[in-house]
Structures are given as structure tokens and as C-alpha cells.
């Protein structure tokens, strides 16, 4: 019997970061997509839910209080439900047509599809920037990656900075940093299937 292709509707097991990436991918892929002229729920409603969840996820990570974590979890549920409803709409329109399903940004049960998160980022390198207090960050690129996240901290500190985002593996500038202090940086890759492990840390004495 031939495989009946469909958009997958399971989001409950995704990590928070994976859910954000998946939702962003779906909204981006379905925006102005001629295959899906009247999404239900609307992409605007899904984006509002995604923005709310992303904001509360960031707050929970910064402060880590039980209240912030509870608010984050509460905002996740309506986002998951909206994505599930959107998947039913996509499946109803696509009727098992694989290329149409893939254009939606949803993961599918297509034969041969192997769900893999990115590999660990390798060859993270720090060097002096052109100005005092500036550091250049380079690392080995990966294929089929949506973006990279990186964080830095002074070696004497325990807390990492907020996550910064880049689409390039070369010539990323971190500034301003304190001169004559040692800093460390870590990087990870993000694709449509989730978030990779953090790289080994790279270190530099800021000049």
C-alpha cells in the first residue's frame, strides 16, 4: 500500500527551543503560500501566540522563578493547539500531496525523512577585533542550518549573556567587552528539527 503523506501534528515532546523554531518555520513557509490561501487559524493569530510564548520563555530563562516558568508553560499550550489545528488545515488542503505538504514548513511522515538536530559546532575561534574591546568570533559552518546562537561571559562570572543570533559563521563581532579581561564564548546551531549541543568554549584575553 502506498504511503499517505501528512503533516505531523505532534508538538508536545518538543523542547521549548524546538517549538519556537518549528513555529517560526511554519509561519514563514505558509506566509503568501499560494497552496494555502486561507490558513485556519490565521497566521497572524499563530504569530501572536508565538510572540507571547517567546517573550515568556525569555523571561523564565532570565529570572527562573516558579511564576515565570508557570506563565511560560501556560502560554505554550495554546501555541501547540493552534499549530495542531493548522496542521489539520494543511492536511485537508494537501490531500497527501508531498510537495504541497513540504511547502507548508511542517514536518511530514515522508519516506526517508530522518529527523536530526544539528551537529555540535566545531572550530570556534576568537581573535582580536579592529577596535579595543572588540572580539571577532568565527566557527565552522553547517549545512541546512537556520541560524546560530552564541553566548559569552567573563571567565570570573557564572552567568552567560543573553543568547545572540547570527546567520553567518564568520566575522561576528562581540562588543563592548572589558579590556584586559578574559572572556569565553560558546555557539550552537539551530535547524527545523531543533537545537544542537553547545560547542566547546573558546577563550580570549580582550585587548
Automatic annotation (TrEMBL):
Q: Which domain of life is it from?
A: Bacteria
Which InterPro entries does the record associate with it? FN3_dom (IPR003961), FN3_sf (IPR036116), Ig-like_fold (IPR013783)
Q: Where is the Fibronectin type-III domain?
A: 117-207
Name assigned to this protein: Fibronectin type III domain-containing protein
Organism (species): Sphingobacterium wenxiniae
Amino acid at each position: 500500500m502506498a504511503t499517505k503523506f501528512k503533516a505531523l501534528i505532534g508538538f508536545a515532546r518538543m523542547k521549548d527551543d524546538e517549538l519556537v523554531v518549528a513555529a517560526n518555520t511554519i509561519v514563514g513557509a505558509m506566509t503568501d503560500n499560494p497552496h494555502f490561501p486561507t490558513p485556519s487559524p490565521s497566521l497572524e493569530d499563530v504569530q501572536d501566540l508565538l510572540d507571547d510564548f517567546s517573550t515568556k520563555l525569555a523571561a523564565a530563562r532570565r529570572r527562573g522563578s516558579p511564576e515565570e516558568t508557570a506563565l511560560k508553560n501556560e502560554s505554550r499550550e495554546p501555541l501547540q493547539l493552534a499549530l495542531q489545528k493548522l496542521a489539520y488545515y494543511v492536511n485537508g488542503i494537501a490531500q497527501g500531496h508531498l510537495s504541497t505538504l513540504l511547502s507548508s514548513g511542517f514536518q511530514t511522515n515522508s519516506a526517508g525523512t530522518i529527523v536530526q538536530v544539528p551537529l555540535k559546532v566545531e572550530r570556534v575561534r576568537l581573535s582580536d577585533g579592529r577596535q579595543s574591546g572588540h572580539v571577532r568570533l568565527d566557527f565552522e559552518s553547517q549545512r541546512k542550518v537556520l541560524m546560530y546562537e552564541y553566548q559569552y561571559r567573563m571567565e570570573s562570572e557564572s552567568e552567560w549573556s543573553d543568547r545572540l543570533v547570527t546567520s553567518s559563521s564568520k566575522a561576528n563581532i562581540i562588543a563592548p567587552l572589558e579590556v584586559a579581561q578574559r572572556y569565553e564564548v560558546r555557539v550552537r546551531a539551530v535547524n527545523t528539527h531543533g537545537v544542537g549541543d553547545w560547542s566547546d568554549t573558546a577563550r580570549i584575553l580582550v585587548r
